[in-house]
Description:
Elements: E1 14-15, E2 23-24, H1 31-64, E3 69-74, H2 81-92, H3 94-98, H4 101-131, H5 143-147, H6 155-163, H7 167-178, H8 185-194, E4 202-204, H9 209-213, H10 239-244, H11 246-254, H12 256-264, H13 280-283, H14 292-297, E5 301-303, E6 305-311, E7 321-327, E8 346-352, H15 368-380, E9 389-395, H16 397-405, H17 424-442, E10 450-453, H18 459-480
Parallel strand pairs: 3-7, 3-8, 4-5, 8-9, 9-10
Antiparallel strand pairs: 1-2, 6-7
Helix pairs in contact: 2-18, 4-7, 15-17
Amino acid sequence: MPAKLPYKSETFYYPTEKDPFVFVPPEHETVEQREARVSADKAAQKVSDAIDDDIDRQRMAERKAPKAVKVLLLGQSESGKSTTLKNFQLINSPKAFREERASWRAVIQLNLARSILCILKVIDKAKKLQEASPGSDVQSSSDEEREQDYPKMTAEHLKLKMRLTPLTAVQEALMRRLFPTNLDYELTSQADLASFPFRDPCVHTTWQWKGKFGRMVAPDRSSFDSAQAIDFDDPQDPGVILHNCSSDMVRLWTDPVIQELLRVSRLRLYDTSGFFLDSIERVTALKYVPTDDDILRARIKTMGVSEHRFRLKAGNMVSHDWRIFDVGGARSQVPAWVPYFDHMDAIIFLAPLNVFDQTLEEAPLVNRLEDSMGIFKHIVSSPLLKNTDIILFLNKCDLLKKKLEAGIRFNKYVVSYGEKPNTFDGTSTYLRKKFLGIFKAHTVAQRPFYCHFTSVTDMKSTTHILENVKDTIVRKNLISSNMV
């Protein structure tokens, strides 16, 4: 009978007691075991040599190839960095972008479910305040809440709330796919659900969440860019529950009393990323396939740093290899930006203009617009970036227009604006001058001020702007190479 081959772990040498860095064969090793160990070692060494050769070839190729163009996306959380990256993908790698439709379909479903659950939380809060007796803990919890004139919730509103309860299961099912199996989902989920109105679901760049949502994709797919790319027969597809709740969601969102409740609660859902409440019937259709515009509007918060490579059509005189670095924008992640400042060709800094009346989630006393200006000041004054072009995107102009048209006074939150007209032209021009003043006062090198008004969810206009940005970077590379 042939000798049993050793396990893989048994093929390693074991350290001696005298010197842990000197390895000797296992004691009582038979001839057959030794031959198997030596054979396994040779095979492992062969694989290791092949990997080393491949790395050496890759290094030589990178040395011979033109230097890669590197672009860093910076800005606070929810400034539009991920959406800008999606636009880069859509322009330069449309096939890879559309291969992710099934994953983004799940994210859009999560965005919609969480928006409805947010409204249900507001209803529940208003109902409790409505039922509270004078002097109770609920009613006296906040002077501001007592002064708010909440509209009365009717029995029909409570029925709608009950019928939409299954959306909680949809949220949990989708979030379980986002979280790695070794993470304590229950604890994270409970902390998340306890927040009000709600926090964005957060994924880390190392979790490979798109692969998990890929389970919804049919195994015999021939193209991701079609309805056949998504397995609509998946029994775990949350789209079935969403479809069954569609009419109730429409009734809830279009109810005038609910709209008044959201206004009194100062909850402007249209101002949040991942807003799909105006497209409920389309998004909840059983055969729903996200459009490019839907994917751009989808929202999922990312943590960590990710590198994305593209082959851009930039002519024959400059590198085709472009690398876009997307870093998390949470306040706690700002120190992680510094290692990526070296050897960057350009930084695209995104400053959302619609946040003039908002505060940071992690620092409720800090105005988001002031925080964005502070980060911009830090970027332009960094000695590490003296040779890097900084391109400013004054983003979310569409949402700024909606706020101003809704009657929200800009000068209430930005006192220095004075009594100027509460219009988009007036406020946007003022903010551009503020950022320009910061740039001129604190930049560490003589360089041009590149500034664009953007709405990165607007695919057509953003495509034009990104093409201009690409031309700017290409021109700089040509000048530095003495080609122009």
